[in-house]
Amino acid sequence: MVYIRVYAVGQNAPFETASYVLIFYALVQISLYQDKRLLANSFVSLVGFVTLIHISITYNFFNLGLTWQEFLSTIFTDPVLAIQVADLALRTVIFILFYLINYIIVSIGQSIQEERKKELNKRREVQMDFTHIVRSLFNVVFQSASTILNERHAYNVA
User: What contacts 7, CB < 8 A, 6 or more positions away?
Assistant: First the structure.
């Protein structure tokens, strides 16, 4: 949305870049949830949204009155539009690389989290086994103690 406002004001390049930084920042915020599926879905929707913005705002497709074939040939033949397309392609490649790096980081974090959960479950199982063994041991000791401390048994021994 910031890109639309900035581009409508007068194609101010530093502010366009700042709006792209906000898109990258949004992707980083989403990656903090450590969910690969959420990150992938967000990336696809962000790329789609940015592409739609570029087609409708940057290239002004809907106001040109051209078909898709005429529009594509105009983009590649007009030098000004060709530079914009190259800029868009470069930004898209950088965005894809940024996404891949975030995806790798989230994948590593998610696998570490799964390993921690498995270790916690194993620790709980060991703790339950230990508790069961100690409880059984003390039951045997207390039962033996009660027979030893029994007065009648004490007279029989003496």
Answer: 16, 57, 58
